[in-house]
Amino acid sequence: MPGRLGFGGFVMAACLATQVFSNIDYFVVGRYLGAAALAHYTLAFQLAIIPVQRLAEILSRVAFPSLARIQSDSAHASGARSPRWCACRRRW
Q: Cβ–Cβ contacts within 10 Å for residue 48, how many?
């Protein structure tokens, strides 16, 4: 069977496992705490994740073209991976 499925079978299993583990908390809350608690949990989770999703969307739209533009310029590209960026993050 692994020979027939090949790489696609492993990818499908990984995606299925990701979906199960990503949503198991909803099942537990709904099963043991009820529908009202699940509604509150879902709303709170969505309100918490929306700013992160929006920021990631903005950063991906800006970062990818910017990094693609400087990839051939070795001076700028090495500056983007500079250790001083790490030092700035540690201070905050």
A: 9
